[in-house]
Q: What sequence folds into this?
């Protein structure tokens, strides 16, 4: 989602780091972006937010209007961080967790890290966040596991195999 929104804003791939950098120069209140309505209290969906950013950029281009890309990046990053942080903290508080962790590629986002650290502290939640160098996209980990599954275990499948996101390794 960060990559697709970043592409619409004119940033190269992978876009998350460019949004993060630009957001430091922008005004996070300049663009009011939508917040999803989801079924469960901890669910989130960003497809509408991503589409809104893409449409905002394309509509401005069609009208010959300028977009303040730094402020759009800041507004986008703030909205995503606020949604994720609110759901994260609500889940921890509601379920009685006093310790939590942030991981994966999104954990490298400075806006999310800062907001989550502040709100976890407010609620007495100990937050573990790995160093930036360890916050890479999970695709490398999946590829590494696939390598060992294929070369060491001899596992393979034909093209009829369906994806199963929760399949154990």
A:
């Amino acid at each position: 989602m960060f990559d697709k929104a970043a592409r619409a804003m004119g940033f190269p791939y992978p876009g998350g780091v460019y949004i993060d950098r630009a957001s430091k120069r922008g005004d996070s209140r300049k663009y009011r972006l939508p917040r999803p309505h989801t079924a469960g209290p901890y669910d989130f969906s960003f497809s509408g937010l991503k589409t809104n950013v893409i449409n905002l950029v394309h509509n401005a281009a069609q009208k010959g209007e300028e977009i303040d890309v730094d402020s759009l990046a800041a507004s986008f990053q703030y909205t995503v961080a606020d949604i994720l942080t609110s759901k994260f903290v609500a889940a921890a508080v509601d379920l009685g967790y006093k310790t939590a962790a942030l991981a994966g590629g999104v954990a490298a986002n400075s806006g999310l890290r800062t907001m989550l650290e502040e709100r976890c502290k407010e609620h007495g939640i100990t937050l573990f966040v790995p160093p930036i160098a360890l916050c890479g996209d999970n695709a490398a980990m999946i590829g590494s596991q696939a390598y060992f599954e294929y070369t060491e275990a001899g596992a393979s499948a034909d093209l009829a195999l369906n994806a199963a996101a929760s399949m154990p390794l």
Q: What stands out?
A: Strands lie at 99-101, 126-128. Residues 69-95 form the longest helix (27 residues).
